Amino acid sequence: MRAAVVRTKGALAVEEVPDPLVGPYDVLCEQLFGGVCAATDRHLIRGDLPIPGITYPLILGHESIGRVVERGAKVRNLVVGDLVTRTGARDTDGLKATWGGFAQLGLGSDWQAMCDDGLPEAEWKHFAVNQALPSTIDPAAATMMITWRETHSYISRLGVAAGSSLLILGSGGNGFSFAALAKAMGAGTIAMAGNPRWADLAGKAGVSAFADYRDAASVQGLNRVAPEGFDAAIDAVGATGAIEAALPLLKPEAPIGMYGIEALGERMAALNTIRETGRRVHGPGEYSEAEAHAAVLALVHTGKLDASLWFDAAAAPDLEDIGLAIDAIEAGRSLKAVVRLSS
Predict the structure, then answer these.
(1) Terminus of the chain with fewer CB atoms < 10 Å: N or C?
(2) CA 21 from centroid of its chain's CA atoms
(3) What is the Cα–Cα distance from 59 to 45, expressed in whole angstroms?
(4) pLDDT digit string (tens) for 135-158?
(5) Each residue of 309-321: pLDDT tens digit?
(6) What DSSP line would sit under 235-286, residue for residue?
(7) Sequence-separated contacts (24+) of 123-131 with Cβ below 8 Å
(8) pTM
(9) Distance separating alpha carbons of residues 230 and 4, to the nearest angstrom
């Protein structure tokens, strides 16, 4: 099969790799569409993702949707034809799957069957992201389920509630997901500090006040929409100093979410310093993508989440031209991008 492989740092190519081997609890999927993560995928290509244990060569992609074409002998909860989230290739000799979504074929697992059959949680928990989707959903748009589920779980755990005010630092795909979800969940005031190129689009996502992140006075001016202080803040980027600069805009008891990982090591030290002041802080990875699946589907069904805010699915290039999707993000033509994995 064909897959998008980063052989060495900075070297992305589409090449032949081994087809996946189907285990007893696995489903083999025809990969339909994969979303390009503006943060993780681009970091993996450049070779500077601030997460330990990344090795090359690797198969890229973690936002893919597959259609089941074959079932392992012990699969009971997925059937041929099902659309499944977060399917992808697995590790093979000399080739890591990180996380293997940009491939023509991928695997998902019937984690519920594994659980019911008494397998240790450590063997099935990470497959809980493999969830079935309704047949009526657009598989290209469904690539956003991964971002929406992560950010829904995160914002819910942070405690953003109906009527509350939220400050979002960052105007990338994740920042917009936090904004759209906060609006859908009934937040009262949503402000964003980001790149001015996205100011008009932010209004469509539910943002009521926008500031240029490069202009300190503009950012501090966001207090006009929350004069008593924001009820919560989320840093969707994780850049140096952003949270510290925003602290004067927050209520003393307002929780902070550091979702982004741009300066991960340094930021974790900064978060610990903020925690010592008694403020509640949520760090990167403090979410469960699987727990938000049903809630996100309900928002999609009611039209409160629409993938067209993030990308034009009709413009999706084929896998062989994945570079065009990455270029669209690099050039600021799209918040995210989607790639057609099968013809």
Answers:
(1) C
(2) 27
(3) 10
(4) 999 999 999 999 999 999 999 999
(5) 999 999 999 999 9
(6) ESS--TTHHHHHGGGB-TT--EEE---TTHHHHHHHHHHHHTTT--EE-TT-
(7) 124/25, 128/288, 128/289, 128/290, 129/85, 129/86, 129/289, 129/290, 130/84, 130/85, 130/86, 130/87, 131/84, 131/85, 131/86, 131/290, 131/293
(8) 0.96
(9) 42
